């Protein structure tokens, strides 16, 4: 007799257990039981496997269809989804003030939050993001709505309530004690769901908006509950220089986070483009990961994150969209941007050399689609301390998978396939040219959460296309706040009795030198 919830697919599976290598399991039968992969057998063993598990059928994939692991987005701001694709005109500190804080603050309207978070989770699932590490917003209640939406729609996630008790907008800031209380309440609410797919996360927004008291208190909560931690580190010149002014006794963001107790083996720090090698080595020693967000770094960052270099120093690295700093919710886009980013480093080195000779040294930062896919799956799983659970097809892991169909020709799909192209070429085309139309089924923990246009766990089966109601909600989203010298305003907002010193905007923008003072590691 077949156990409940057992099924099998026979076909071709792609994954990247080893960095830089694309492995293909050709014509295998993969059996899933209670959400876990329990058997991977050769295709010719189908009958035996069917008998062993009492399966009424083994579903055969069509030619041109492949399974691959679901994508793991290690850095998304859930309440920023509504303005993704807009607001790319200003640097980070001004961007926060102009677009981000008003948008996030508006989630206090819980009905709006429910609509928008439902659209968000559907959009990410549709794009193949089976696991996301989400930032929520400051206020407790909308974050509970976010957790409920993720639970309802079947996504896997690590989710945090944002904390900030200084240097934010007047109407979007919390008292230290309130912030700590709400962070703990968020953790206990999320753990109370006893949903193995969803884990709470401690989320000090970034150093400029958090007092040492808040950061230390948050570290204690993380330790008490064994939680993940997420924040932003060494993202751009404006942020780094602001931190240097506020905390002159520390040489780097990493040194501040270390002192606050926020670097653990369950910490994910976004960006890290201005980390020194010493910083990277220190994060690696702590088991802390960096979420590489290439598209966002092109808009809000000032430097390149060097994936191969960071990995060579032992750092765990995942990939992130950083919606809405990154203007696309798609992890396919993030992978392509990671490749482009790496090729920009090469071009930059050549330009600096002034010559026309490409040296091996210039080549070593270049990554291919295979490395990018590893970052989007295995790298993300390692970053989120989920390497034993997801990221590849192995017996004992959960079945978080995407069914890719490369047969959509003409205008029904994003690319064409030509005679003579083999499976490997079709799969590579999907990674480089494909989109959500190619993802015909999405599985999380062995459950099909999306098939075609339908979200199967959503009672209403609402399509990812916005309904009229959704559109109304989108139109009622807050308009950007036009700041006057916003960055200065932001940077000076801290209590004058506070240790925050003034920040020279011009100098922050011009200085591109990473900090040279050594840390207290
Ligand atoms: N630093 C602090 N907050 C944010 C944010 O929302 N997005 C990005 N990219 N960087 C940040
Ligand atoms: Fe971010």
Automatic annotation (TrEMBL):
Entry cofactor note text?
Binds 1 zinc ion per subunit.
Q: Where is this region: Disordered?
A: 498-521
Keywords of the record, alphabetical order, are: Hydrolase, Metal-binding, Zinc
| Record-annotated Amidohydrolase-related domain positions | 67-447
Q: Tell me the Pfam families matching this sequence.
A: Amidohydro_1
Q: Which InterPro entries match?
A: Amidohydro-rel, Guanine_deaminase, Metal-dep_hydrolase_composite, Metal_Hydrolase, Metallo-dep_hydrolases
Q: Which SUPFAM superfamilies match?
A: Composite domain of metallo-dependent hydrolases, Metallo-dependent hydrolases
Could you tell me the Gene Ontology terms of the biological process aspect for this record? guanine catabolic process
Asked if the keyword Hydrolase belongs to this entry, the reply reads yes
Q: Which cofactor does it need?
A: Zn(2+)
Which Gene Ontology molecular function entries are recorded, alphabetically?
A: guanine deaminase activity; zinc ion binding
Say which enzyme class the record assigns: hydrolase
In the UniProt record, does the keyword Zinc occur?
yes
Q: What is its EC number?
A: 3.5.4.3
In which pathway is this protein known to take part? Purine metabolism; guanine degradation; xanthine from guanine: step 1/1
Q: Among the entry's GO cellular component annotations, what is one?
A: cytosol
Q: Which domain of life is it from?
A: Eukaryota
What reaction(s) does this enzyme catalyze?
A: guanine + H2O + H(+) = xanthine + NH4(+)
Q: What does this protein do?
A: Catalyzes the hydrolytic deamination of guanine, producing xanthine and ammonia.
* NCBIfam families referenced in this protein's UniProt entry, alphabetically: guan_deamin
| Family to which the UniProt record says this protein belongs | Belongs to the metallo-dependent hydrolases superfamily. ATZ/TRZ family.
Protein name (Swiss-Prot/TrEMBL): Guanine deaminase
């Amino acid at each position: 007799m077949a156990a409940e919830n057992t099924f099998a697919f026979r076909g071709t599976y792609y994954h990247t257990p080893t960095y830089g290598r694309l492995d293909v399991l050709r014509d295998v039968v993969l059996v899933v039981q209670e959400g876990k992969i329990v058997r991977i057998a050769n295709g010719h063993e189908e009958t035996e496997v069917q008998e062993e598990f009492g399966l009424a059928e083994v579903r055969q994939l069509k030619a041109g269809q492949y399974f691959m692991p679901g994508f793991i987005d290690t850095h998304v701001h859930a309440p920023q989804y509504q303005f993704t694709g807009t607001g790319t005109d200003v640097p980070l500190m001004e961007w926060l003030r102009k677009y981000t804080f008003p948008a996030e603050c508006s989630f206090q309207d819980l009905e709006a939050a429910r609509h928008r978070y439902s659209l968000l989770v559907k959009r990410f699932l549709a794009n193949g993001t089976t696991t996301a590490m989400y930032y929520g917003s400051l206020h407790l209640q909308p974050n509970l709505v976010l957790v409920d939406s993720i639970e309802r729609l079947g996504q896997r996630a690590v989710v945090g309530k944002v904390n900030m008790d200084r240097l934010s907008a007047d109407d979007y800031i919390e008292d230290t004690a309130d912030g700590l209380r709400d962070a703990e309440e968020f953790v206990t609410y999320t753990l109370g769901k006893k949903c193995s797919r969803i884990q709470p996360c401690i989320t000090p927004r970034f150093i400029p908006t958090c007092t040492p008291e808040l950061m230390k208190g948050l570290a204690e909560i993380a330790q008490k509950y064994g939680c993940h931690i997420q924040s932003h580190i060494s993202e751009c010149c404006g942020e780094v220089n602001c931190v240097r002014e506020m905390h002159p006794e520390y040489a780097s963001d990493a040194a501040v986070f270390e002192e606050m107790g926020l670097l653990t083996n369950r910490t994910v720090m976004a960006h890290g483009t201005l980390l020194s090698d010493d910083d990277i080595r220190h994060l690696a020693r702590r088991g802390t990961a960096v979420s590489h967000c290439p598209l966002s770094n092109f808009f809000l960052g000032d430097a390149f994150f060097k994936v191969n270099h960071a990995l060579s120093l032992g750092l765990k690295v995942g990939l992130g969209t950083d919606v809405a700093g990154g203007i696309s919710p798609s992890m396919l886009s993030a992978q392509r941007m990671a490749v482009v980013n790496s090729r920009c480093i090469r071009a930059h080195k050549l330009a600096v050399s002034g010559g026309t000779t490409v040296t091996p040294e210039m080549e070593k930062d270049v990554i291919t689609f295979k490395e990018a896919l590893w970052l989007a799956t295995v790298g993300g799983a390692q970053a989120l301390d989920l390497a034993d659970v997801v990221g590849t097809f192995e017996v004992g892991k959960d079945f978080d998978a995407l069914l890719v169909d490369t047969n959509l020709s003409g205008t029904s799909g994003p690319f064409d396939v030509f005679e003579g192209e083999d499976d490997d070429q079709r799969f590579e085309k999907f990674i480089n040219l494909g989109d959500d139309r190619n993802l015909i089924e999405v599985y999380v923990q062995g459950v099909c959460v999306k098939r075609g246009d339908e979200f199967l766990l959503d009672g209403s089966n609402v399509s990812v296309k916005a309904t009229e109601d959704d559109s109304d909600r989108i139109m009622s989203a807050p308009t950007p706040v036009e700041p006057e010298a916003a960055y200065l305003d932001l940077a000076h907002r801290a209590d004058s009795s506070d240790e925050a010193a003034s920040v020279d905007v011009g100098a922050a923008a011009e200085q591109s030198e990473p900090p040279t003072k050594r840390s207290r590691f």
